[in-house]
Design goal:
The chain is of the alpha/beta class. It contains 18 helices and eleven strands. The mean pLDDT is 97. It binds nicotinamide-adenine-dinucleotide and magnesium ion. The site of nicotinamide-adenine-dinucleotide has 25 residues, from helix 1, helix 6 and helix 11.
Length: 386
């Protein structure tokens, strides 16, 4: 039996890597639904290549183009909220959640509530919904498989071991393109410098998050919700080579690590075939060529996002939603050259100071907090000239 899969965010970096694996193993996977935000041509092309049954485009203005491109293909074109939920919770048993940002929250929750297996790349959905998502998964019998390379590594390091014996989780971080830069240079860094990640090729938003190290802050919160450990038991370790993707330290002193080339097709393949294994086109690890693995402590002075994210997690309230929403807007404004690199963390910090967000008791409350922060931060950003 082929595994029936849907890919939310099929045209992005993770979506494209997922399709690369699916097309390499046509005997194993059947594509049910694909989604994208605006690129109708790329979406139609993926749908035709994979024989998908449903293609959903978020931007309604692109619907006619998508429908025309898919005419005669046997793939239905659709747009709108309900179509997106259908892609997430329809006929597929396995769903790749690869939309970027809190925009992916509702489709991920639909897949969770339908009891599907969710390969979760969309960390912002878990950061904002937190235990609402993990509780819903328990109730519905859904499985959340982490795709983020660090969390996928931890998932692999925990397999077959008693979770009671875990002392701590060690999340590794490359340190991003500005690992060795001074704070003064970072403050005025340009988007193309921030986008030039030394090890990974990724979408624009996560690349900027890697440069501010907000990505590691979001991953700290993600790890807490996925593995149930307190903030005090999750360490961050800078490891510039990105060879060790993360580690688990056990109470007996053993440390188990997962290693591999920095290629997202490896964690995606793990989640795609789980609990089996499939081949990938990723380069195998050549440790003789790499020769040195080095480690440094993270620097919270130059990378204040790490401190902000840890504080948001420890607040136990809805601060992570505020942090995430303000960060999404600030990153977009930086990419539009409306603010300086150093302003990103300042905008996030101010939003947290000015917003009292209680712990949400429903997804509707998460979305309310997210929207009100976007409104407030958006207003202050709109006064800036592009
Ligand atoms: P990307 O920008 O390359 O792709 C995003 C996808 O989501 C695209 O298909 C886009 O059309 C769609 N999308 C964007 N905004 C949308 C919206 N408002 N509504 C519906 N669809 C929308 O992003 P990416 O780098 O592939 O990252 C996707 C997610 O995976 C992010 O949450 C990121 O943090 C996470 N992630 C990515 C990588 C990586 O290597 N790229 C690694 C780990 C985790
Ligand atoms: Mg990661």
């Amino acid at each position: 039996m082929k595994r029936r899969i849907s890919i939310l965010g099929a045209t992005g970096s993770v979506g494209t890597s997922t399709l690369d694996l699916v097309e390499r193993h046509p005997d194993r996977f059947e594509v049910i639904a694909l989604t994208a935000a605006t690129n109708a041509a790329a979406l139609a092309d993926c749908a035709r290549r994979t024989g998908a049954k449903l293609a959903v485009i978020t931007d309604e203005r692109k619907f006619d183009e998508l429908r025309d491109l898919l005419a005669g293909s046997g793939c239905r074109a659709a747009t709108g909220h309900d179509a997106m939920l259908e892609a997430a919770a329809g006929d597929a048993e396995w769903v790749m959640a690869a939309i970027v940002g809190c925009a992916g929250l509702e489709p991920v929750m639909a897949a969770v509530e339908a009891g599907r297996t969710i390969a979760l790349a969309n960390k912002e959905a878990l950061v904002t919904a937190g235990w609402l998502m993990t509780d819903a998964a328990k109730r519905a019998g859904a499985t959340i498989l982490p795709v983020d390379s660090e969390h996928n590594a931890i998932f692999q390091c925990l397999a077959g071991n008693s979770h009671d014996g875990v002392a701590k989780l060690i999340l590794t971080a490359s340190g991003g393109p500005f690992r060795t830069w001074t704070k003064a240079d970072m403050d005025v860094a340009r988007p193309e410098q921030a986008l030039a990640h030394p090890n990974w090729s990724m979408g624009a938003k996560i690349s900027i998050d890697s440069a501010t190290m907000m990505n590691k802050g979001l991953e700290l919160i993600e790890a807490h919700h996925l593995f149930g450990l307190s903030s005090a038991r999750i360490d961050i370790l800078v490891h510039p080579q990105s060879v060790i993707h993360s580690m688990v330290e056990y109470v007996d002193g053993s440390v188990i690590a997962q290693l591999g080339s920095p290629d997202m097709r490896i964690p995606i393949a793990h989640a795609l075939a789980w609990p089996e294994r499939i081949t990938t086109r990723a380069e195998t690890l050549d440790l003789i060529k790499i020769a040195t693995l080095s480690f440094e402590p993270p620097d919270e002075q130059r990378f204040p996002s790490l401190r902000l994210a840890r504080a948001a997690l420890e607040s136990g309230k809805g601060e992570a939603i505020v942090l995430n929403a303000a960060n999404e807007l600030a990153v977009a404004a930086f990419l539009d050259r409306r603010i300086a690199f150093g302003d990103i963390a300042r905008i996030v910090e101010r939003a947290i100071e000015e917003t009292d967000a209680p712990a949400p008791s429903s997804i509707a409350e998460v979305i309310d907090i997210d929207q009100s922060v976007r409104h407030k931060v958006g207003e202050s950003l709109s006064s800036l000239v592009a």
